[in-house]
Every structure is written in structure tokens, then in C-alpha cells.
Please model this.
Amino acid sequence: MAEDDFVLVEGLNIDFAVPGGTLHAVRDASFGIAKGETLCIVGESGSGKSMTALGLMGLLPSNAQRSARRLRVGGHDLMAMSRQKLSDLRGSEMAMIFQEPMTSLNPCYTVGNQMAETLVRHRGVPWRSALTTARDWLERVGIPPSAGRLGQYPHQLSGGLRQRVMIAMMLMCEPKLIIADEPTTALDVTIQAQVLHLLARLQREMGITMIFITHDLGVVSRIADRIAVMYAGQIVETGTTREVLTDAQHPYTRGLLDCVPVPGKTQRGAALGTIPGTVPSLIGRLDGCGFAGRCRHAAPACLTGLTALAERDNGRQVRCLFAPATLWGRA
Ligand code: ATP
Ligand code: MG
Model:
């Protein structure tokens, strides 16, 4: 994390009041992203990836409680911002793309109408030129004008086309930060690759900073500059893609990498691993390391010791009492 990072998240906590107490969906998350970089957030289901993104955007469910020491995007202090200002910023500088485009597309309006409306509202562009820009943008995402898609309703498009429309609609407003939450998971594998490639190419061309959330470590290795690994609401490791994929310093990251084939790393025919045990409850206090119950290197100190996210060289952070990895289990 550096002071001049485009995105700076420090000490982000997101809690929900639930019948059994307080559910800590995100605990003390901190990370930074330089301008134009892609940070991939990975981790298993329920680890707090979406809540981290929604917390940054100010789009949390109404029963969520958010606190943070700092939340900054492009010099804007999001903590000190009014609801209105934040909503304006979401239209102009930050945009989010979800797994299911129908959550963001309105089924009652044609694609052209929605795209033009977005430009009129956020950029104050006259309707006619907004429609022209919408047509140009559809072409940029691989939808030719001759296909007549502007006049169609979202339900008339395939999943892949809908996601392309979403990408066009989002990039049309020239955001500086995009947050993509599993944007290709619902698509067929071949379409997934096309949409991912398109998004990554346009993001690079436009110099946009991106947070990309995914389960898929294969995707991570292709698009991420940096990786943040989440486990049970905590970021347990961050670093450059190369560092994390080739030299993981947290036992959970190592376990995760052993569970999936990683292009260029996993040997052909090698057996894939599993991580035994279950994720700890997110409700109530967490004593010691959240992964200790599943970690084969765990020592008594791991059950009680404070596991802060220790900053190492070059913005690398690892939440393990025994990092670097050469010290695992040496208690
Ligand atoms: P997935 O990969 O399945 O999308 P995720 O990492 O994005 O998972 P989150 O959606 O961030 O996980 O959820 C983190 C935790 O917050 C989960 O345990 C979830 O049950 C809890 N949570 C989410 N929304 C609510 C809510 N409205 N009320 C209570 N708990 C919630
Ligand atoms: Mg999610």
C-alpha cells in the first residue's frame, strides 16, 4: 500500500446484526491499488469478497454496518462523502459490473434507451448524440450496428450479449475504477473467455483501475497485477500475481493453489489437493488465526496469537504468525 495508490482501503470492517450476535463479514481489510492496475480478490464462497467491493462502493445492504480508517478512490475520501456525492461518483468515476447483468439492466426498456439514458443522466449529453455514442460503444464491445440490438429488450439477448451490453454501458461513462464481481461466472466457458478478454483489453486501453472478484485462479493468472486472498472475512495475503502464485506465504493460499490447476505451474497429471475442515463461524470474536483449525502447520500460538496483516517488502502482506513460509510450524 502506498500513499499515492489510486484506491486505498484501510481497516475496512463490515458487520451484520444477526440472531446469534454480530456477523463479521469483513474484518480489518486493507489494500491499495495503483492507477491502471488490476487487483483480483480471490477466496472461497462467503469469504467476504462481494461485501468488500460493495463496502467500497457504498452499496451495502441496509442492515450492514461499515467502518474503516480510510477509504479513498482517486483522491476522493469516500468516508467523508455525502450520499448524493457518492451516488454521483458511482455514475461518473466508479462503476460496478455484476455476475448477472439482469440485476443492472431494466427489463422494461430497450438496450438503446438504457444506454442513452445513462449518458444523458451522468454526462449531460443530448439524447441524439447519446444514442450515437451507445451505438458506437456496442460496436466496440463486438455488437455490430446492423444487428439492431439497440431496439431490443434485455431478455431478447443471450447471457453473453447482455454482459457485453453491461460492459459497454459501464465503460461509456469513462469510469476511472471498475469493480467486476464474478462477471463471467454465469456464462459458457467459451463465451467467458471472450468477455473476459474484451473487458481486460478495454480496461488496459482506457487506463482504468480494476478490482476483479473471482473464484477462478486461472482467470487471476491472466488478468491480475496484484492478488488479495480472502479467508473468513479477512485478507490473509496480498502481493503481485507472480509473488502470490509462485511463492505463497500463507498456508491458506498454498492450499487454495494446490486445489486448482494453475496454468504454467501445475504439472500435467499431478493430483489436486483439498483443504480439510470447515470455515470458522463469522459470528462473534475471532481469537487467533481464522485458518488455524484447518492448517496443518498450526502451533498453539496460532489459536490465541494476534494475526495482524504484516507488511513485508514491496507492499506484500501476509496474515500468518509464521510467515515467511520457511518458518511454518516452527513454534
Ligand atoms: P461468493 O463467492 O459466494 O459470492 P463472497 O466472498 O462474495 O461469496 P460475501 O457475499 O461477501 O461473500 O458474504 C460474506 C459473508 O457475509 C457471508 O458469510 C454472508 O453470509 C454474509 N452476508 C452477506 N449479506 C448478508 C446480509 N444481508 N445479512 C447477513 N449476512 C450477510
Ligand atoms: Mg460474492
Observations:
- The mean pLDDT is 89.
- The chain has ten helices and 13 strands.
